[in-house]
Amino acid sequence: MTTTTLTTTGSPRPRRAPGGPAGTRPRGPAGTHPRTGHPRTSPRALPPHTVFAERLLAVLSGERPVHWMLGHTVGEAYEQLVRIAPETPLRSLGPRPVLRRCSVQVDDDRTAVEAFATIATGARVRAMAFRLERGEDQRWRCAAVELDGLGAAARPAPHRA
Q: Does the reported pTM lie above 0.90?
């Protein structure tokens, strides 16, 4: 399909349909590699503990608001984030903080994961620990967060009578 468009000089210029001139589109069914015909594979998905480490990093660096984690937390984890995040403990005056390493210890029944991560904030390296629990819907949710011990220190002191 060709239509005519006027240029700024007023002379007509042919315009082609999207996809370029005829014969230049890749052949084969959609979703296949043009040369081999094999189905395209999506990039390998990140493990849940790495995804949550990146999400927690975004919240604790001030890049994302705490409520961004609402559907991804369970139990005390959201309250822990509410107490820790306003201080933006992972904010860096230099480049964005970077997740350097994230390791995991898996529960025997594979319904809980204890993870720890190291985060580079400029020249400083910080430690973060968190717990993920798998719900009945098979989704992982963060159940606890600690940052350089701030998770424990940020909790209110127990009331003693």
A: no
